[in-house]
Amino acid sequence: MSEFTVGESDFLLDGRPVRLLSGALHYFRVHEAQWRHRLAMLRAMGLNCVETYVPWNLHEPRPGAFRDVRAVGRFLDAVREAGLWAIVRPGPYICAEWENGGLPAWLTHEVGTRARTRDERCLRAVHSWFGRLLREVVPRQIDRGGPVLMVQVENEYGSYGSDTGQLTALAELLRAEGVTVPLFTSDGPEDHMLTGGSLPGVLATVNFGSHARVAFDTLRRHRPAGPLMCMEFWCGWFDHWAGEHVVRDPAEAAEALREILDSGASVNLYMAHGGTSFGGWAGANRGGGALHEGPLEPDVTSYDYDAPIDEQGRPTEKFWRFREVLAGHCSVPLPELPPHPPVLDTPVEAALTAWAPLADVLEALGGEETVTPMPPSFEELGITRGLVRYAVEVPGPRQPYPLTARGLRDLAVVYVDGARAGVLTEEEPELKEPVAGPARVELWVESLGRVNYGPRLGEAKGVTGGLLHERQYLHGIRARGLDLDAFEAGVDAVPFGAPPGEGTPGLYRGTLMVRGAGDARLELPGCTRGFVWINGFGLGRYWSVGPQRSLYVPGPVLREGENELWVLELQETAPDGPAPRLLPA
C-alpha cells in the first residue's frame, strides 16, 4: 500500500518527490494477448507509468447492456505486473479519435448538445456507467495495492464548454464511487480552455506538442502552485482517409520532450503506442479551422500516430531518441527490449469462394425494416457503426428531376430500379442524372465515423434532411439498418452463393491457409471500401483512397492452417482483380 499525493511543487509517493514519465497506450486498441509486450516496451523506453482512456460506447452499446467492462481491470492488473503505474481517463467524453468521442450514440441522440452538461438525463446515464466501470478501477488504486495513481475528470472540457458545474458533478461522482487518488483535468494551454476546463482544488494539467515553457507559463498564471505536467505531449499525429500520412521528425520531437523534462515537469507521451481502431470504431473530425464546422474528415483505421512504438509494436527511430532522453531522468539502468512477437512466416493469398449480395446480408443480419414519412437517422434505428438502406418509390408518370439526399451523412451508393446510379456525399448530395417516375430508388448509406471533437460532436448519421425529387419531399421511406455488431455472431445465417465476376458489392467469404502464424498485414488490392474480419475478429475499415494501404492483423488472431476471411465490400471490386493477400508485418 502506498500514498500518492499532489504537493506544492511535486508529486509525492509516500511523501517523497516522484516524477511521472508516462505513455499513452489504449487497451482497446491493442489485442489483449499483446498487452504485456507493449507494456514491456514502455518500460524499455524509460517510462514508469501508462495512461489509458476508457471508451464508454465500446462497453455499453445499449443502455444497461454492459460488454466486457472487466477488460479495464484485466489491463490494470497487467500494468501492475509490468511494474508500471497507471493513469485512468474515464471521460465520460474521451475524444481519442474514437467514434463519437467515446459517448454512446444512444445518449447523444437523446440529449443532443446537452451531452457534456449538467443535463439530468446525461448525468443519470453517467452515474449508471461509472457505477459499473469504477468497480474495475477503485480496488486497483495505489492506496489499495494497485497501480492507479490518478483519475481524470472529463477530458479537455475547456475546448468545448464552460459548464464547470458539470465538472464538479463528475468529480463528486468519482469520489462518491470510491476514487481516493488525486483527480485532475487536462486542457490546452490557453486562458479560455483553462478557465472553462479546470476546477478549484483539482490538479490542472496541459496538453501540447511543443513550446513547453510557454505552455507552462500559461498554466502557472492559473495555478501558481502544484506539479507541472503535460498530460498529452503530442509526439506524433493521426491520419484521415484521402489525406496525407502525418509524420514528425524524431530529433525535433526528442528536443521537445527534453524541454518538457528540463522544465522540471512530468509528462505523458501521446501516444507512446497508438495501436489500431479495430472493429470500425475510428472517429472523424470536421475541417474548417477553429470552428470545426467544415467537411467531414474520417480517421483511418490505423492509430499508429507516428508513435515511438509503431502499430506492430516495434521500436522506431523516435523510440531510441526518446529512450536516450528519458534515460537521463531514470535512477536505474533501463531494461532491455522484450522479444518481438512472432511475425507471419509465409505470404498467403486468399481464396474467396462464396459471395452474397448486400440485400441478402441485410435480410440475414439486419434489423427490422421501418416505414416512416421521413428518413430515420441511424440513431433512431439503433445503428452505431455500419450502414442503412433507404428505399422510396418515386411516383409517376413524371419527367426526370434531380434527386437529392438532403443532410446526407456520410456517403450513399444509389440504385435506381436496381441499376447503380451514382455515389453521393455530404458535399455532393444530388445525383448527376435526373430520375424519372415511376421508379424505385435505394440509397445504401454508410457512416464514416462519428465526430469525436468540436461543436459537431453527437451529430446524427444517415439522411437527416429528407429525400427530395426536384423540390418535393418523397415520403413513405422504408429503412433497414445493418450494424457491424451483428457480425459478432458470425455469418452462417447469410445465404452464400458463388462469387460474381463483375466486381459487385456484397459479402465475400473465403479462407487463408496460414503457415507460421504471427503478426501480418492484409492487403485488399481489388477492393474499394468496406470492412473486413479474420476468424470473426473485426480488423476495421479499408478504403482505396488511402493513405492507409493495408490493415494490421495481430498474430493472436491467426491460427495455423485454415483461417476464415469475410470482406464486406460496399461499393465495388475490380472485375477479376487481385485477391486479398496476407503479408508479414
Q: If you average the pLDDT, what whole number results?
A: 97
Please report the distance between the alpha carbons of the first and last residues. 42 Å
Please state how the strands of the largest beta sheet are arranged side by side. Answer: 4-5-6-7-8-9-10-11
Helix content: 10-25%
Task: Extract low-pLDDT stretches.
Answer: none
The general outline is globular
The CATH homologous superfamily name of the largest domain equals: Glycosidases
CATH architecture descriptor name of the largest domain: Alpha-Beta Barrel
How many strand segments?
33
Structural class of the secondary elements? alpha+beta
Computed over alpha carbons, the radius of gyration is 25 Å
Q: What composes the largest sheet?
A: 8 strands, parallel, barrel
Name the beta content range: 25-35%
CATH topology name of the largest domain, in short, is: TIM Barrel
CATH C-level name of the largest domain: Alpha Beta
How many structural units, i.e. domains?
3
Number of DSSP helical runs:
12
Family: Belongs to the glycosyl hydrolase 35 family.
Domain Beta-galactosidase 1-like first all-beta: 375-476
InterPro entries: B-gal_1-like (IPR026283), BetaGal1-like_ABD1 (IPR048912), BetaGal_gal-bd (IPR048913), Galactose-bd-like_sf (IPR008979), GH (IPR017853), Gly_Hdrlase_35_cat (IPR031330), Glyco_hydro_35_CS (IPR019801), Glycoside_Hdrlase_35 (IPR001944)
Keywords: Glycosidase, Hydrolase
